[in-house]
Structure formats: structure tokens, C-alpha cells
From TrEMBL:
Lineage of source species: Bacteria, Pseudomonadati, Pseudomonadota, Alphaproteobacteria, Hyphomicrobiales
Alphabetized Pfam families for the sequence: Hexapep, LpxD
GO molecular function: N-acyltransferase activity; UDP-3-O-[(3R)-3-hydroxyacyl]-glucosamine N-acyltransferase activity
Top-rank lineage group of the source organism: Bacteria
Complex and partners: Homotrimer.
SUPFAM superfamilies assigned to the protein according to its UniProt record, in alphabetical order: Trimeric LpxA-like enzymes
GO annotation, biological process: lipid A biosynthetic process
Protein name: UDP-3-O-acylglucosamine N-acyltransferase
Organism: Sinorhizobium sojae CCBAU 05684
Length: 354
């Protein structure tokens, strides 16, 4: 890959310092003073780069590797050539994430779109809005009446912050996002085009066969350290609140319906749809493209496989998959049985052709 001017290399961190900051042990103390500047995949890493390995499957990539260090577990350190220093850790994935944040801090949240700081001349901030010192508002952004925004928060170009919205400190609201009827905590990242706090999908049968809109007067509450992906939509509650718990990470193109409550430290992957009034516990992981029925509960620590259809409650700690979603062992058994039957049908068909 050519030099990446979007995310330029760091001025340099000593390997010894990097090891201590990511909780790793440097295999060769003699190189502790060498500096590293960037992260790179194993196969094209050059001097000054840090890479990581999670398994022996990457050993062939080491043939073209010239990294200044490789982060890995001690169980696979033996496959790393002796001329490449190793940063030993029992959690290489976590250590690499920490290293990336140190070497490429500017990539950890959406970057500035203009060179101006403070309140841009092209932004509109209602006179009744309250902004703490250090808030940045880029051109074409709109801050509505009575809104309150904490210090260190950046409102990017074209974003809309609706009336009376509250946003905490050190947040990033990216270009083109809109936030209505919401309370947002500290250190929240909302990526471009996300839609937060619009009314949910609620209708009652009309007297003449049509549908009558049900009023949506709840809020969206987003707790601290949440990240919400591009073009994700989170509807406000009907009469209660839609809640996204602390530390939860939501991918792009996710739909979260009204009154949904999502716990702390969940991971929700792209194109998941969660229908209204569902309850998602703490630490739940939901794979891409899964659908979650309304008015059901998914217990703490449960895992939902990609492309699953969750129609009923999922107990805490369980792994579910399939349509309808069921315990993973049952789902895999069903898949194996269907594959076996398909094979038998194919054999019979082949025999008739003969």
C-alpha cells in the first residue's frame, strides 16, 4: 500500500515504552530503545511497523515481514523469525488494539473536516443553546433551541442537534448525523448519517381500514462510551425511553426500534434489526443481519449468530442461531441432518439417471 496521508505515522514510541503501555513483555531488552511509528499487517510490515499474530496460520506471511515487532502469544512466538522482536502477551488482540490507539490516535474517532476550530461562521447555533467552552461546531451544522453540549465535543459539518437535546463531554457527532429527543452521555461517537431520536414505527387500525399514527413521546438515552455506526437509526420511545447502555458498540446500518433497551458492553453488527420493546442484556453479541422480534428478552452474555431470526426469549449465556433461532447445538444438528438428507436425495436421483 502506498503511503497513507489520511493516517500518517506517529513521530515514534520506544518499543520498551510501548510494551509497558500495552501490557506486553519485550522478548529482547536490547531493542527497547528502538522506535515504532505505525501498525501494519504481517505480510507487508516494514521497519518501524508493529504487527500482530493470532495463530500459526499466518506463518507464511512472515517470509515478507520486516516489522520492528510482532505482538503474539508465547505459544506461537517460536514461529517468528529470530531477527524480529516479539511483544509477548496472553491477549494479543487487545494489546494490538491498544498499540493502534497509541500510534494512530487521530483514527480513533472521525477526524476534523475543516481547519477551523471553535464555532464556524457557517454554523447555526440558536441563541438559547448552551455550549461549554471547547465545543467545536463545523460549517452547516445546526444546534437547536435549548440544546446543551459539553466541552470537548465536536459537531461535524451538516449535523443537526435538535431542540433541548443534551450531549455530554468529549463526544463526536459526525457529518450529516441528526439527534432529536435524546440525552447523550460522555465520550460517545456517532458516525456519519446516523439518525437518533426520530419517531418510531407505531400505528393503530383506522376506522376505514387505514392506519392511524400512534404518538411517540419518549426519548433516546445513550450512556457513556457508546459508539454508533454510520446510517444506523435509533427510534425514540413511544411513552418510555429507548436506552443504549454504557460501552455498547453498534455497527453501521442497524435499526433499533422504539422502547428497546440494550444493556452495557454489547456488540451489535451491521444490518441487525431489533423490533420495539425488546430487552437486550449486558454483554450480548448479535451477528450481522440478525433480526430480533419485539417484546422479547435476550439474557446477559448471550450470543446470536449472524442471519438468525430471534422469535422468542434467549436465556443468559446461551448461543443461538438459525431461523427461528434455537440453541446452537440444535441448529448445527439440524443443518447436518438437512445436508445428509440432501446428499441422500442426490444419490437416489443419480441412481435413477443411470
Amino acid at each position: 500500500m502506498e503511503q497513507n496521508w489520511f493516517f500518517p505515522p506517529h513521530e515514534g514510541i520506544r518499543l520498551g515504552d510501548l510494551a509497558s503501555q500495552i501490557g506486553a513483555e519485550l522478548s529482547d531488552a536490547a531493542v527497547a530503545g528502538q522506535t515504532v511509528h505505525a501498525v501494519a499487517p504481517v505480510y507487508r510490515a516494514k521497519p518501524g511497523d508493529v504487527s500482530y499474530m493470532l495463530s500459526r496460520k499466518s506463518r507464511d506471511e512472515l517470509k515478507s515481514c520486516h516489522a520492528s515487532a510482532i505482538i503474539c502469544d508465547k505459544t506461537i512466538a517460536s514461529v517468528v523469525p529470530s531477527h524480529i522482536p516479539v511483544l509477548l502477551t496472553s491477549k494479543p488482540h487487545t494489546a494490538f488494539a491498544l498499540a493502534g490507539a497509541l500510534l494512530h490516535g487521530e483514527a480513533m474517532r472521525p477526524s476534523y473536516n475543516t481547519s477551523e476550530r471553535g464555532i464556524a461562521p457557517g454554523a447555526f447555533v440558536d441563541p438559547t443553546a448552551r455550549l461549554e467552552p471547547g465545543v467545536e461546531v463545523e460549517p452547516s451544522a445546526v444546534i437547536g433551541a435549548g440544546a446543551e453540549i459539553g466541552s470537548g465535543t465536536r459537531i461535524a459539518a451538516g449535523a443537526l442537534i435538535g431542540p433541548n437535546v443534551r450531549i455530554g463531554r468529549d463526544c463526536t457527532i459526525s457529518a450529516g448525523a441528526s439527534i432529536l429527543s435524546a440525552l447523550v452521555g460522555n465520550s460517545v461517537i456517532i458516525h456519519p448519517g446516523a439518525r437518533i431520536g426520530q419517531d418510531g414505527f407505531g400505528y393503530a387500525p383506522g376506522p376505514s381500514g387505514g392506519m392511524i399514527k400512534i404518538v411517540q413521546v419518549g426519548r433516546v438515552i445513550i450512556q457513556d462510551n457508546v459508539e454508533i455506526g454510520a446510517n444506523t437509526t435509533i427510534d425514540r420511545g413511544t411513552m418510555d425511553d429507548t436506552v443504549i447502555g454504557e460501552g455498547t458498540k453498534i455497527d453501521n446500518l442497524v435499526q433499533i426500534g422504539h422502547n428497546v433497551r440494550i444493556g452495557r458492553y454489547c456488540g451489535i453488527v451491521s444490518q441487525v434489526g431489533i423490533a420495539g420493546s425488546a430487552r437486550i442484556g449486558d454483554g450480548v453479541m448479535i451477528g450481522g443481519g440478525a433480526g430480533v422480534n419485539g417484546h422479547i428478552s435476550i439474557g446477559n452474555g448471550a450470543q446470536i449468530a449472524a442471519m438468525s431470526g430471534v422469535a422468542s426469549d434467549v436465556p443468559a449465556g446461551e448461543r443461538y442461531g438459525g431461523i427461528p433461532a434455537r440453541p446452537m447445538r440444535d441448529f448445527l444438528r439440524d443443518v447436518a441432518e438437512m445436508a445428509m438428507r440432501a446428499s441422500e436425495r442426490q444419490k437416489k436421483k443419480g441412481g435413477k439417471d443411470e
